């Protein structure tokens, strides 16, 4: 009798083990409010929070926000926002990609 609960628990762990999440959720509805040449780093931080990753492109800062979910069962969800700032801390460009 003890084998059935053990098998069920093992099956549940295998099912849960087939999923992975990377990054942190961010408010994708705020992307529409980004304006190249106007939106500042402070405004980006206020809308999206701290970036998941930071970097540099041609000497100018870049902030990345990303949330990625994969499942062994074939479903996935991806949201990725990369914001490039000019030397004054104003949005120079951005790219937003989603699987929705």
UniProtKB/TrEMBL annotation:
Organism superkingdom: Bacteria
Domain Outer membrane protein assembly factor BamE residues, every copy: 28-93
InterPro entries membership: BamE-like, BamE_dom
Keywords carried by this UniProt record: Lipoprotein, Membrane, Signal
GO cellular component: outer membrane
TM ranges: none
Signal peptide start and end residues: 1-20
Keyword Oxidoreductase found: no
Record protein name field: Outer membrane protein assembly factor BamE, lipoprotein component of the BamABCDE complex
Species this chain originates from: Thiohalospira halophila DSM 15071
């Amino acid at each position: 009798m003890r084998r059935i609960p053990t098998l069920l628990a093992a099956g549940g762990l295998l099912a849960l083990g087939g999923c992975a999440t990377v990054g942190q959720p961010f408010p994708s509805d705020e992307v529409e409010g980004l304006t190249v040449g106007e939106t500042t780093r402070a405004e980006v931080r206020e809308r999206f929070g701290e970036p998941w990753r930071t970097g540099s492109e041609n000497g100018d800062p870049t902030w990345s926000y990303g949330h990625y979910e994969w499942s062994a069962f074939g479903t996935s969800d991806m949201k990725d926002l990369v914001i490039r700032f000019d030397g004054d801390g104003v949005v120079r460009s951005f790219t937003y990609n989603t699987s929705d």
